[in-house]
Amino acid sequence: MSKILKAGALVVALLMNSAYARAEENFGRWLINFQRTKEVKPVTDKRYLKECGECHFAYQPGLLPERSWEKLLNAGALKNHFGDNAEFDNDTLQAIHDYAVENAADKSFYKRSRKIALATAVGEAPLRITEVRYIMRKHKDIPEKMVKGNKDVKSLSNCNKCHTQADKGIFDNDTVSIPNYPDWDD
Amino acid sequence: MKCNIGFRNMATIACLAALPGMAYADGAMQDIAIPSLAGSYTNGSKSYMLALNDADAVQKQASATPVTQAAEFEPPMFSGSNAHKYLGLGTLALVVATALAPKPPEVEGRAPTQAELDAQKSSNHARLGRAAATLAAATVTTGLLAHWDDFHVEDGWTDPDNMHALLGTAGALAMLYAVSKAPGGGHAGVGMAGGVAMGVAIKLTW
Predict the structure, then answer these.
(1) Co-location of A50 and A12 in the same domain
(2) End-to-end Cα distance, chain A
(3) Domain that holds residue A8
(4) Minimal C-alpha gap between B112 and chain A (Å)
(5) In this structure, are A86 and A57 located in the same domain?
(6) B87 and B132 in contact (C-beta within 8 Å)?
(7) DSSP sequence for A77-124
(8) Which of A57, A112, B39, B173 has the greatest number of beta carbons closer than 10 A?
(9) Count of CB atoms within 10 A of residue B109's CB?
């Protein structure tokens, strides 16, 4: 019996010591959740999907820390959203802002989001997902010809061109297929 | 006898660890197109003839939208990552089975006879324990091979993958240690701790 108690205490100690314990409000939910959370939480908000997805891939909020979304999603910043005007009415902006901030990388218990948050330096607020340290590190070995020089990809910002299940928040190596480079291997 | 068991376990680990390598090789082999002499000749002469007879047609053909669409991408069923995942889950299942399997009676107060030692080593509990430790070692090996680029020490030990690797390796070592000490007092606690560490490692990156 004492062995079982010791083993139980060890489990609790190890889990409480984990990175997930930092996301206090989500910890209990994560602990009893047996669904896979190793990737990035897929977008579930219809408004976010519609409004952002009209112009580009609706990037999951878990791909950037909260600080970045705060900088990106305000009326002033959206007037010049990477060269385009992407202004919303106040209601829509508020809804999109709140959804992004609530599900930002540093608030998520999804593994890849946690890794993004941990790899981002304190105070750093990358505005582009392609400038996130973790994302840069994961793509550093991919030759330019496969991305910029690839007419069907053109930029790392077109995640879903190679990550075939990006819309589900899945970005692992097994689901990567680089257009025009079927022999690509990581 | 001990040497034989060790050798057999090592061979099993090596075979299981080779799984991701085979998966990669399998993926590469599917794309190998062996050119035939006749094919090369036909293709070469076709472009030559078209170029000579109708240069415009060749240009148009090159820029035209392909009629056949690229096949929809299907993630590979057998990959290094999947091999690692299923080996890890298999290890956990074997740990539970080992804990539940009836243990041979312990000999107290005197040294066990050879027959008693043989009975202990050939019990289901012992066999399952050895299988669990072997699978654990294979899981760690495949994890290192398939997920090497997921570990970044600079992110600290709270990084889920770093912690997964640390706990998984510690768990596998504890299980191997427990098997090496069995039968005997104290191996149960170490083995159980190893299983727990492996379970937590899996949960952290599930």
Answers:
(1) no
(2) 48
(3) 2-31
(4) 25
(5) yes
(6) no
(7) HHHTBTTB-----HHHHHHHHHHHHHT-GGG--SHHHHHHHHHSPTT-
(8) A112
(9) 4
- Same-domain pairing of A86 and A156: yes
* Number of compact structural domains in chain A: 2
Bond into B183 cis (ω within 30): yes
Instruction: For chain A, positions 115-154, list CB contacts with chain B under 8 A.
Output: 115, 118-119, 137-138
In a domain, A182, yes or no: no
Q: Is residue A14 located within the same domain as residue A88?
A: no
Closest CA to A40 of A122, A127, A125, A132: A132
Q: Which of B31, B82, B200 sits opposite A11 (nearest CB)?
A: B200
Average pLDDT, chain A: 88
In this predicted structure, the answer to whether residue B72 has a pLDDT above a threshold of 70 is yes
Distance separating the N- and C-terminal Cα atoms of chain B: 39
CB pairs < 8 Å spanning A and B: 77
Predicted complex ipTM:
0.78
CB contact under 8 A, A111 and B205: yes
Residues A52 and A110 in one domain: yes
Longest dimension (CA), chain A: 66
For the segment A157-174, the average pLDDT, to the nearest whole number, is: 94
Please state, as a whole number, how many other Cβ atoms lie within 10 Å of the Cβ of residue B81.
19
In contact, B176 and B130? CB cutoff 8 Å: no
For residue A164, give both structure tokens: 């075939």
Could B158 and A18 be called an inter-chain contact, meaning their C-beta atoms sit closer than 8 Å? yes
My answer on whether A100 and A169 are in the same domain is yes
In a domain? residue A144: yes
Find chain A residues with C-beta within 8 A of B204's C-beta. Answer: 18-20, 111
Domain ranges within chain B, ordered by starting residue:
83-102+112-204
Q: Which of A146, A121, A34, A183 is nearest to B28 (CA)?
A: A183
CB-based contact B160 A115, cutoff 8 Å: yes
Residues A65 and A149 in one domain: yes
Answer yes or no: is A23 within a domain. Answer: yes
For residue B45, the model assigns a pLDDT of 46
- The tokens describing B186, both together, are 């104290």
pLDDT digits (tens, 9 = 90+) for B100-113: 998 887 777 777 78
Q: Please give the pLDDT value at position A18.
A: 56
